[in-house]
């Protein structure tokens, strides 16, 4: 899985090595649905995705990480 939708927000799998850089971008926060943060995942606020190119960048980033994983 590369990206998903949670309410109005976009869940993006960026990987543990890219989490800090992703969290430095506007509208992001740690992905935490159960009281325990999920390493390598972030949430991007829907309000930060009003431009198609910004949404596309996040989808591309999630896809890039997902395709870097070994096949299961």
Describe this structure in words.
The chain is an alpha+beta fold and 72 residues long. It has two helices and four strands; from the N terminus they run ββαββα. The chain starts with a strand and ends with a helix.
Summarize the helices and strands and which ones pair or pack.
Layout: E1 3-6, E2 9-13, H1 19-23, E3 28-30, E4 41-44, H2 52-68
Antiparallel strand pairs: 1-2, 2-4, 3-4
Order of helices and strands: EEHEEH
The main β sheet shows up as: 4 strands, antiparallel
Derived from helix and strand composition plus strand pairing, the structural class reads alpha+beta
How many helices does DSSP assign?
2
Shape: globular
- Integer-rounded radius of gyration: 12 Å
Order of adjacent strands in the largest pleated sheet: 1-2-4-3
Put the structure in a nutshell:
The chain is of the alpha+beta class and 72 residues long.
Identify the notable features of this structure and list them briefly.
72 residues; alpha+beta; 31% helix; four-stranded antiparallel β-sheet; 22% strand; 2 helices; globular
């Amino acid at each position: 899985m590369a990206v998903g939708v949670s309410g109005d927000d976009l869940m993006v799998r960026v990987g543990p090595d890219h989490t800090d850089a992703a969290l430095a971008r506007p509208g992001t926060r740690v992905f935490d649905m159960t009281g325990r943060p999920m390493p390598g995942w972030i949430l991007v606020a829907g309000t930060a995705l009003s431009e198609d190119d910004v949404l596309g960048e996040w989808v591309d980033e999630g896809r890039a990480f997902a395709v870097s994983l070994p096949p299961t």
